[in-house]
Design a protein that fits this description.
Shape of chain A: elongated
Structural class of chain A: alpha+beta
Distance between the termini of chain A: 17 Å
Low-confidence stretches of chain A: none
Oligomer: homodimer
Strand content of chain A: 25-35%
Radius of gyration of chain A: 19 Å
Largest interface: A-B, 41 and 41 residues
Number of strands of chain A: 11
Helix content of chain A: 10-25%
Number of helices of chain A: 2
Chain lengths: 183, 183
């Protein structure tokens, strides 16, 4: 951020009065430009004991498998966003059970939410950002070709919880040490 | 948003190519300025079966009681943010159990997270944005003077779950119909 989005003046990066951390702020119109973590919301969608995965057609992690998920939009509930992303990426309609996993990724200022859901009719197809969609049994999961740690962790929780047919919300943090040399 | 924060040029509000909703975008440097919901994170902090509440010294809902909570910051886990806010607003140190409630508030593009937590040593004091902090037994809760529906709902879940000493994550949406006359 270099310019004030309200008045177009150049911003500075310093601690505003009464605050305790640096923000972009405009000394022309006094706007403080807060920047906050974004939410990524998606589904662990199930059909006849199989899990729906999408192979990514875009970077990051192009060619690897993921659960359908994307940025929550303004004006949308987290649950509605999860269903929307599942439609956009996997052309699958879902009935959502409830929140299943939540992860903080502080190094990239993201919070991931995955909802456990059932496919409505078992149909799916590659949508935007997806080359291929498929349903996987536990023994078929491409563990070495998963796109993100949050996907791996969510799948591991699911197969573990499924043993006792007792599903509860799991939360966790994905901590990645930044390489100080590259800033 | 009127100006591009990257180059200072005036932005337009339209659907970018390949997208399906309106965004602020800059036709000078091609930056799309995504705007997404913010996360508010806080604690349902307990001490000897009492709940910690803060009376707000600022608007909105000045003078009403709330659970300590505030905007999650970049670079922070949701859990760390909840503990930080509890320190900043109530000068109370907590040991967090786990996520307890999550609410989407699509009309203001916010997602609330409350963590169940125990006070570390029972000490507290009014911090920033707070006039007064106190511990409340169930029968003392000022139900008519609570600041936000998410606070009421979280307290209701807690006292209900406490009957059977079985606490699970509760999720929900707070839906407020916009008055179309006022936009």
């Amino acid at each position: 951020m270099k310019f004030c989005s309200a008045c177009g003046f150049e911003v500075v990066f310093r601690i505003p009065e009464g605050d305790n951390r640096e923000r972009y702020l405009c000394e022309q119109c006094d706007t403080v430009h807060y920047q906050n973590p974004r939410i990524i919301t998606g589904c662990l969608a199930i059909w006849e004991d199989k899990v729906l995965l999408c192979r990514r057609s875009i970077n990051p992690r192009k060619g690897l498998w993921t659960l359908p998920a994307g940025f929550l939009e303004n004006g949308e509930t987290a649950q509605a966003g999860a269903a929307r992303e599942t439609w956009e990426e996997a052309r699958a309609r879902v009935v959502i059970d409830d929140l299943y996993t939540m992860f903080s990724l502080p190094h990239i200022s993201q919070v991931y939410l995955f909802y456990k859901a059932q496919l409505l009719d078992g149909s799916y197809a590659a949508g935007a950002e997806t080359v291929e969609v498929a349903l996987f049994d536990e023994e078929e999961i491409p563990w070495e070709e998963l796109a993100f740690p949050v996907v791996r962790d969510t799948l591991q929780h699911y197969f573990q919880d499924r043993i006792h047919d007792h599903f509860r919300v799991h939360t966790g943090d994905i901590i990645v040490q930044r390489d100080r040399r590259s800033g």
